[in-house]
Design brief:
The chain is of the alpha/beta class. Strands 3-2-4-5-7-6 form a six-stranded parallel β-sheet, sandwiched between helices. Strands 11-10-9-12-13-14 form a six-stranded parallel β-sheet, sandwiched between helices. A six-stranded parallel β-sheet has the order 16-15-17-18-20-19, with helices on both faces. The longest helix is centred in the N-terminal third of the chain and has 16 residues, at about 135-150. The protein is globular and about 70 Å long. The protein starts with a strand and ends in a 14-residue tail after the last strand. The model has no long low-confidence stretch (mean pLDDT about 95).
Length: about 550
C-alpha cells in the first residue's frame, strides 16, 4: 500500500471517529472482519452483543437516551438478517441508526455461495436509505452521505453494505477529507427540504396560528432529534400554547409543567385528548401522526412540520426542520389563551390508576408503582433512565411514569417488539455512564433477549432489571379471554430466573408481596447490575385500549 493510501476499512473507521462516534454495538463474522480489524486500534469502542438483534436494540437505546446517532454492526447473511427486528423498530420510531453490514466479495455475489443474500433488498423497506458499496469510493461516499442526512434532520436507519473485498482495498487519504460533491449527492438520490418552499409555507402557518383562538402544539420525537427541546419550551411559554406529546417525545416538556398536557392518542390523558379534539389549530412538530395519535385529534386545522415529507398529513404541510421553524417565529403574535387553557384543565392530566392494593398475589400496577417510588430520588436528580419492554407491564409504566426530560423513558411505541428492554438498556448505559438504568420487562419479553445479561455483566453496567412475572403472555391471554373460546399457548413454564442471573454473575432476588418491591429496588441500586423477579397476579388484566380499525 502506498504512503498516501489507507485500507478502506480503516478509512471508514477514521470517518466514524471524525464524526464523533464513540461506541458501536455488534457481533463479528467473517465478511466484516476487516472492519473489526480497523476498530481494534481505533478510539471507537466496540460493544460485543450476544445477538445481532441485541446490537440493533442497543444502538437504538443509545440513540434515544443520548439524542445522538446509534451504530450497529453485523456480518453478511444471518448476521445482517438478525439485525432486522431492531432496524424495523428504529424505523417505525424514526430513530437515527447507522446500520453497517459486511457482505461476500463482489465476484461471489448473486451466485448462491455461503451466506450470500441480497441484504439491501431485505433492509430497503425499513431504512431511509440503503447504500450498496460496489467500490471503496462508494463506501466512503455512502458513509459521508449518511452523516449528511442525519445533520440535515432526517432520522431513521441508514444502511451501508460493505463487501469484504471492498473493505480490504486501498483508498487515497484525501478521500477522507474531501467534501461531498453535488453530483455524488444526486447519484445517491438524497433530497433535502427546499428552503424557499419552506419559507413560503412558514408564512402561511404563522398567519393561521395568529388567527387561532384555541391553538395546541403536538410535539413528536423530531423535536429531540432537531435539538429543539429548549426552543419548543421557550416558544410554548412565550405564547402560552399548551403542549401534548407523542410517546417517544414524552419529556420534551416536563410532564409537571403547567402547559404540558401529557401524551395524546389511544393512551393519552383526558386533558390532552380533549385539547386535541377541540383545538382550532394543531401545530404538529416532528411527529408522524400515526393512527394511535390521530385517535386524539379532532377537526381543527393541522400544520404539520417534518423533515420527512413522506409522513406529512396536515392541512398545511411544511417539509422542513422543526428547529428552523421555531427560530423563525420570533415575531409571531398569538391570541390570549388563558380561557382556552382553563377549559382544558377542567380535564385531568393524570391517569386514574389504583395502586394501594395490599393483596397477595401482588397486583402488577402496585409493583410498578413501587419501582417508580424507589426510583424517585434518582429521577428527580436527572440520574435515571427507565426502559420499558412490551407486555402488560408496559401499560402500567405508561400510565404511572411522570417524564421530566426527553430520553429518560425508552419504549418502542411504533413496533413494540418483545425483547427490546434488556439490550436497549445496554445502549442507554453506555450513552449515559453516570446514570442508573432501570428495565421493566415481562417474563415473556425477558426470555427473548436474556443473553444480553452477558454484556451487562461483562461491563458491570449500572442496570437494575425488574422482571414482572405473571407466568403468561398477559395481553394476548386477556384478548383470548375476551374474544375467543379459550386460552391457547399463552401460559409460560418459566425457568428459575435467579439461577440464570447467577450464571451470568449478576446479583438477584425474588419478591412477591406489597412493600417488598420498593425495598428490593433500593437494594438493587447499591449492588448493580441487579435482577429482581417480581411475582404478580397472573389473572390481573390491563385497561385495554380501544381497537383502531
Amino acid at each position: 500500500m502506498k504512503n498516501n493510501e489507507m485500507r478502506c476499512a480503516d478509512a471508514l473507521v477514521v470517518l466514524l471517529e471524525k464524526n464523533g462516534v464513540k461506541h458501536v454495538f455488534g457481533h463479528p463474522g467473517e465478511q466484516i472482519l476487516p472492519f473489526y480489524d480497523a476498530l481494534r486500534t481505533s478510539k471507537v469502542q466496540h460493544v460485543l452483543m450476544r445477538h445481532e438483534q441485541g446490537a440493533a436494540h442497543a444502538a437504538d437505546g443509545y440513540a434515544r437516551s443520548s439524542g445522538s446517532m446509534g451504530v450497529c454492526l453485523a456480518t453478511a447473511g444471518p448476521g445482517a438478517l438478525n439485525l432486522t427486528m431492531g432496524v424495523a423498530t428504529a424505523y417505525k420510531d424514526s430513530v437515527p441508526l447507522l446500520v453497517i453490514t459486511g457482505d461476500v466479495p463482489r465476484k461471489l455475489r448473486g451466485k448462491n455461495v455461503f451466506q450470500d443474500i441480497n441484504t439491501c433488498k431485505v433492509l430497503e423497506p425499513i431504512t431511509l436509505q440503503t447504500f450498496d458499496a460496489k467500490n471503496p469510493e462508494e463506501a466512503i461516499n455512502g458513509l459521508k452521505i449518511a452523516f449528511k442526512i442525519f445533520e440535515n434532520g432526517l432520522t431513521g436507519p441508514i444502511h451501508l453494505n460493505l463487501p469484504k473485498d471492498v473493505l480490504e482495498e486501498p483508498v487515497d487519504l484525501t478521500s477522507i477529507e474531501e467534501d461531498l460533491k453535488e453530483d455524488v449527492m444526486e447519484n445517491f438520490n438524497v433530497m433535502f427540504p427546499d428552503e424557499k418552499a419552506v419559507s413560503a409555507c412558514v408564512a402561511d402557518a404563522f398567519e393561521l396560528l395568529e388567527s387561532s383562538k384555541r391553538p395546541l402544539i403536538l410535539a413528536g420525537a423530531g423535536v429531540i432529534w432537531a435539538g429543539a427541546v429548549s426552543s419548543l419550551r421557550n416558544f410554548a411559554e412565550k405564547h402560552g400554547i399548551p403542549v401534548a406529546t407523542t410517546y417517544p417525545a414524552r419529556g420534551v416538556m416536563p410532564e409537571d409543567h403547567p402547559l404540558c398536557l401529557g401524551m395524546m392518542g389511544t393512551r393519552g390523558t383526558e386533558a390532552s385528548n380533549f385539547a386535541g379534539k377541540n383545538c382550532d389549530t394543531l401545530l404538529a412538530l416532528g411527529c408522524r401522526l400515526s393512527e394511535r395519535t390521530l385517535h386524539g385529534i379532532g377537526k381543527g386545522k393541522v400544520i404539520h412540520v417534518n423533515t420527512d415529507d413522506s409522513v406529512l398529513k396536515g392541512d398545511l404541510n411544511i417539509h422542513g426542520n422543526v428547529s428552523e421553524f421555531l427560530e423563525a417565529s420570533s415575531t409571531l403574535k398569538i391570541h390570549d389563551t388563558d380561557e382556552w387553557i382553563s377549559r382544558i384543565l377542567e380535564h385531568p392530566k393524570d391517569y386514574p390508576v389504583q395502586t394501594d392494593q395490599n393483596d397477595v398475589p401482588l397486583k402488577p400496577q402496585r409493583a410498578v408503582k413501587e419501582i417508580m417510588d424507589a426510583s424517585y430520588d434518582l429521577n428527580a436528580s436527572g440520574n435515571l433512565i427507565m426502559v420499558n419492554d412490551a407486555g402488560t407491564h408496559t401499560t402500567w409504566v405508561t400510565l404511572l411514569k411522570k417524564v421530566k426530560e426527553p430520553g429518560t423513558l425508552l419504549f418502542s411505541g411504533g413496533f413494540g417488539p418483545m425483547g427490546y428492554g434488556v439490550p436497549a438498556a445496554v445502549g442507554a448505559a453506555f450513552a449515559n455512564p453516570h446514570k442508573t438504568v432501570v428495565v421493566v420487562v415481562g417474563d415473556g419479553g425477558f426470555q427473548m433477549t436474556l443473553q444480553e445479561l452477558a454484556t451487562i455483566s461483562q461491563h458491570n453496567l449500572k442496570v437494575v432489571i425488574c422482571i414482572i412475572n405473571n407466568s403468561s403472555l398477559g395481553i394476548i391471554k386477556q384478548w383470548q379471554k375476551l374474544h375467543y373460546e379459550g386460552l391457547y399457548e399463552v401460559e409460560l413454564e418459566n425457568p428459575d430466573f435467579l439461577e440464570i442471573a447467577k450464571a451470568y454473575r449478576i446479583d438477584s432476588e425474588r419478591v412477591d408481596s406489597p412493600g417488598e418491591v420498593f425495598k428490593a429496588v433500593k437494594r438493587g441500586f447499591k449492588e448493580m447490575p441487579h435482577l429482581i423477579e417480581v411475582i404478580v397476579d397472573a389473572e390481573e388484566g390491563i385497561p385495554l385500549p380501544e381497537v383502531i380499525k
